[in-house]
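Annotated sample (chain length 89).
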Amino acid sequence: MKEILRIAPSEIEKKSFEIITEELGDRQPDQDKAPIVKRVIHTTADFDYADNLFLSVGRPHNVKVYVKGMEKNILAKKRKMNIPLDSLD
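Output written by the structure step:
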């Protein structure tokens, strides 16, 4: 029987972010935006966000809502549904 390797979720996330950083190469986002951009890439596995994600610096609540809206839109597209962004809390 094959042994199951147990890895903590935080270790998986850490490795994922290392891979994302490496894969981005010279396309690294600004230091203040990097955690959000890399989180979006981690969540979606879509590296295009490194080039086309717009963030409003200095307004963390709006950034959080915008990213939350993007996640809902991604899920909606997967389900072929239309979820309006203004329905966010």
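Annotation: Residues 85-89 have pLDDT under 50 and may be disordered.
Annotation: Residues 9 and 36 are 19 Å apart (CA to CA).
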